[in-house]
Amino acid sequence: MKRVISCLMLLSVMVISPLLQAKEAALMQPDHVLEKRVMALAYELRCLVCQNQSLGDSHSEFAIDMRTEIRDQMRLGKDDEQVTDFMVQRYGDFIRFRPPVKSTTYLLWFGPFILLLIGGVVLFISLKIRKRTVKTVPMSDEDRKRADTLLGDQ
């Protein structure tokens, strides 16, 4: 009897626990034009919690708050550039998926090409050194006979 009760309790906990974490679905905004602008800009900005997702893709609390902030800024009459500038001022250039090319982002933009160039130079130099150190010596008749006997005169 105790086993049945404990199984029923475990089953009820398993059924109820997902319901405790469920959230209410966000209401659709009545202004569809504004919502399209919000989501278009949200896909251009990075979620700082997820880091590899845009604010439009992310379901984190931060992303939800940022979409609400974007919506509020647009309701105040700000255009996309002003809202983006506000977000950059608040969170830095990292919030943009495509940060501008400026002195603080040179390494971000040109670093991979510099590393590729350095790797190519190192490869070229190491191949040149290897080519100089490896010398081909022709086989003598004695070495050739010895090789033939080892291989079994195939």
Description:
With 154 residues, this protein is an all-alpha fold. Among the domains are: 26-100, Cytochrome C biogenesis protein (Helicase, Ruva Protein, domain 3, Orthogonal Bundle); 102-133. Helix content is 63%, strand content 0%. It is built from 6 helices and no strands. It has helices spanning 2-21, 32-42, 61-75, 80-91, 106-133, 141-151. Helix 2 crosses helix 3 (61-75). The longest helix has 28 residues, at 106-133. The N and C termini lie far apart (83 Å). The model has no long low-confidence stretch (mean pLDDT 85).
List keywords for this structure.
single chain, 154 residues, mainly alpha, Helicase, Ruva Protein, domain 3, 63% helix
Question: What would you say about this model in short?
Answer:
The chain is mostly helical and 154 residues long. It contains 6 helices and no strands.
